[in-house]
Every structure is written in structure tokens, then in C-alpha cells.
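Risk register update: the risk of archive-format incompatibility is retired. Evidence:
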Amino acid sequence: MTRSRSHTLAQFARRARMSAQRLRVLHGERRLPAPDGVDPDGADVWSAATIDRWLRATGRTVPDDAVWPFGWPDASESAEVIWSGDIDLPRGHTAAVTIFDGAGQPVVYAVGYVGQDVSRDTIAEAAIARLDPDRRPGAVVVQPFLLDPESDGPYPHLELWRMPEQPDPVPDPAPAALPAMLRRFLPQREREREPVGVMRQPVIGRQRRPDAPEYAGSVFASEVARVLGRPVPLWWAGTTTPEIMRTVRLLDQPRPLPIADTITEWPAAIARLTAALEHSVHTTYPQAFALLARETRAAHRDVSAALTHPSTGDGWYLAAAPQPPAWPAVAEQRAVAAGRDLDPEAAADELDRLAQVEADREWRSDDPYGNALRHAILLLRGRLAATHPERVYTFPVTYSWPDAHGPICDEYRRHLTGLTPADAHGDPEHPTRRLVRLLTQDASDAAIAHHQLLVNARERLVAIYRDPQGRLVAHLTAGFAHLDDELLIEWPTSMPPAGWTEQTVIAADETYSATGLFAMTPGPDGALLPPQPVPNPGDEPRYTFGYGGNSPAVVYQALVRCALGDWTAATHESWVQRLSTHPDDQRNRPHSRLWQQIVTSKGALRLSWADVQQWVREDQEALFRRRQDRR
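Archived output:
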């Protein structure tokens, strides 16, 4: 096996059979390959593969011990295919493999099928195992990088694995002698078990199994093709299906196989626009349709550019190429005509109506119109968030409260009303899009279908409820004996409702992870009103406390925004990082009593809303004074 250590400039010169002076000149003129790193003294170093690649590319003599493929001669004819087919992988998966005879040495080309979560190391090991044992020494496995349609073009590299040409040496069964001065430090039982004068060699780092290949970086497609005498196929991500790969393998033609586009954003974009046209969105919701049309035109432009990248190159070709995007005539005309400026007030009105229509629609795994409605809502919210937050943040987000327990949890659940399948959002077998968003924690339609999120949620579902404010709540089993059940709650992102008083307490149960944060307010008769979820206006809740960090900072952020009625106040950088964590901090920074309460509260959290408002005003004034002092 070739040496894998790094080479200094002097060692580079010896491997290249050049004078050190000449090599220093080339290095100064930046005519050497880029170094792979630096040594402890900061000097540039190169791997043997980098040196050998440069020697081959510049027409210089390659060392006899050069790694594959740099030391192998150019093929005089196309390499013979020794075997082609599928190999078995763990968990019932498979991969496509072609074994070539590359200058008398097996070269295994392997590609995993789409949708299979299998590591490339596993594929390489299984591919080597397909060879007869006597053919494995020196064999190599190459796996292409899957191409991204949104990239600047094909990436003509393959990842490389190598088997040693000589078997790994068998460890000496006789361990080294242990010096007597060290043996006395062993426990008595170890001294009795260890032979006298013997020390076992330590095993350091991850050990490669003798029958497994070792990863050797990447190699240009042109270098593989030079040894094989034929170009190698590259693949768009998402096209490596068994059907397409079988067709490409059987035809064995060095040009792209035309296929339907299932990998870019275009099919989903045009399906949404077409469904919107079929349901007259362009007349009923013109502001929303204009945004959909603008995004669809952008998708057409971007995908057209991506699919016009070269399909062949030096030593490679694209195995399968999606068809370029095509406009249905009416859709293109409507999309061009919809290029209007946004009317914020009209758009906000459309947002309210669209949100209701989309929420009440029955969910189906393949529903282009439902997808179009949801996408239009997200586009409208994105455009209006800065100018109309009070209209945008009327929608909830799904909040997962795992291991939900404690007196606050019990009080909240006491006010929930159970739903039956007769309720519009109470039938999990025929769920609305709103209910599905709750059960799948706001996942996209594609993710819900692909990962069977709704199926999994139904298996754990105990009951569906509605809280006093009309928000949906789902009760799911935890799935673990030592945990309490999970609650999925439609959590508000708006400003807090009217009704919080000086007697209101911000409360949370003792927790070891995320928890529900509620406002507890006594009524005029002294009885507690139903607990109200504390929103993080304009953002998502991720509530924890009792320590410093990002999640407790979200509690701080939410309370500041609620107290000030400011959607953008208390970003992590501009508030928490400028406030001293401890009262005795000597860095001349203002001290936040609110932050101190959040990070030091152990067990349950109880904060007076009146105190929270006072502490927030103190923080606001302190930061204002600090800005004034800096001027």
C-alpha cells in the first residue's frame, strides 16, 4: 500500500525526482498543486496522491509506488465489464454495481439507490465483498458525487476507496514486555492476570477491518476514465432509481437518457400554479396569485439554467437528464400578466381569508391546490411580516411539550374540551390540513407523505382537544415508560391577549426539557381563569429555564416582547449578550434582574407579571443609557 503520510517540499522533490531548488522555484511561482495542509511548523505539505496527480497531469514520471489511478497506464481499449448488477446491503437495501477490469485490477463503480439511508462506506465494503477473495487485494471502489440541480454545474469527481495490495500484517501475538517500574502501578488483579514482563499494545483510534477498504479521498472522473478507456456516468440527485439505472446500464451509451423531471423545483411550482388557475385564485385572490406567479417564473428561469449545464465532459457524461421545464400556454400567459406590485392592505385581507380556507380543507397526500394555498399563505406572510406583523402573526405554530406533567399542566388540561369526529377538526382519519399540521408539527406535505409522519402520529394519538381560546391540542403517548405523554399545542405567535393584570403570574412546571409557559390570572372571584399560553410574538417558543443558553434566552425574549408590545425587541445579540448574568459582574455591563431570575430558577418557574414588566423597563433604560454613553 502506498504511503499515506504528508510530504514536505523536500520530500515532494524526492518523490518527483526533481531538485529541491527547482521545486522551490515552482512553488514560488505558484505552479505546484495547492498543499493539503501544513505541518506543526507551519510549512506546506502534500499527500502522495496530490503529488502523483500533479506529476501525471504535467507529463512527468510517476513513481512506481504511485496510488491508483495515477501510476496506471492509459487504457488502449474499453475495460471489460466483469460483472454488473445489484448487491445486497443492510436493512434490505441494495446498490447498483459494475465491476471493470482496469489494467488487470478490479475497479468497482457503485451507486446507491435513491431514498435509501445507507453510508457510502457500507456500500464500498459490500462492493468489495462481491469480489472473489483473491481479486480483492489492490481493488478500488469509486462512487460518484450526486449532482445538485441548483449548483453551478456538474462536479466531475468520484469518491475513492482502496484495498491494500498486501494483506494487513497479523499482529504479533507476543505482547511487548512491561517494564517492572510500571507493573507496580497496575491493580493487584491485573498483575495476577498479566504474564510477567508483558505489556499489551494499546489500540489507538478507529481500526479498519482487514476485509474492508479504506477511504482515499476523491479522484477526477477523467483519471478514472483514462484507466478504464471509457467515460464514467454521473448522476443528478434523485435520479438513481432502479428503473432508470437499469436502463442506463443496459443501453451503455455515453450520453444522457432523457427522463421526466422529478428532481427540480419546477414540477411542484407549475403544479401549484396550474391548480391555482383551475380554482380561479387569479381572480379571487389576485395578490396571492401574483406572488405564486412570480415564484413560478423564477423557478422556470433557475431550472432552465441548471439543466443547460454541460451533459458531457472530460471522462464523464450525465447518465440521465431531466427534460427542460415547459409552460402550459395558459399558465404562462397568466403568470406574465400577474406581474403586479403588492398592495399590502389587499394582501393582508387575502391572507385572512386564505388562511381560513386552507385550514378547513381536508388533507390529502397529493393535493396541488391545498399545496398552492399553503404556499401562497407563506409567501404573503413573508412579504407582510415587516410591515403588518399584527396581521401576519395571528397564526399559531405547533409546540411540542414532551413529558408534559406538573400542576400547571394539570390545570391547563382541566380546561380542555375533547373533540369527536363530528367536529370539523376532530377526525384523525379524515383530517383537515389544520389538524395534520398539528399532528405532524408543521411539516410540509412532501415530508408528511415521504416519512409517513401522519401515520406515526395516528398510532400515538390518544385524543384531540380544543382549549378555551379555540386552539387545537393533541394528546400523544410518549412511547417511553419513564416519560409522561406529549402534548402538541397550537401555540400563539401574536401579542398577549387583554386581561393580564398585576396579579398575573408567568408560570411553568419543573422540567428537564422544553416546557409549557403560561400566564395564570385570578378572576374577580379569586378563582383561576384558564391558563393562557405565553406567546413569543413574531417567533417560535422554545421554552426552558434554570440555566444560561439559547433556549432560556427565548423565554427572556418572549417576556420582553410581550411587556413592551414590540415585535422586534430583545434579539439575542442586542439584549441578552449586553446584560450581565451575575449581579457582581465587574465588566461594567448593566445587570438584568429578569435574566437572572430565568437562569437561576430551579424547580418550577413563577414570575409576577408586574415584576416582569418592571424588570423589562429597567433593562430597556439601562441599554438606552449605555448607547448614550457610547456616543
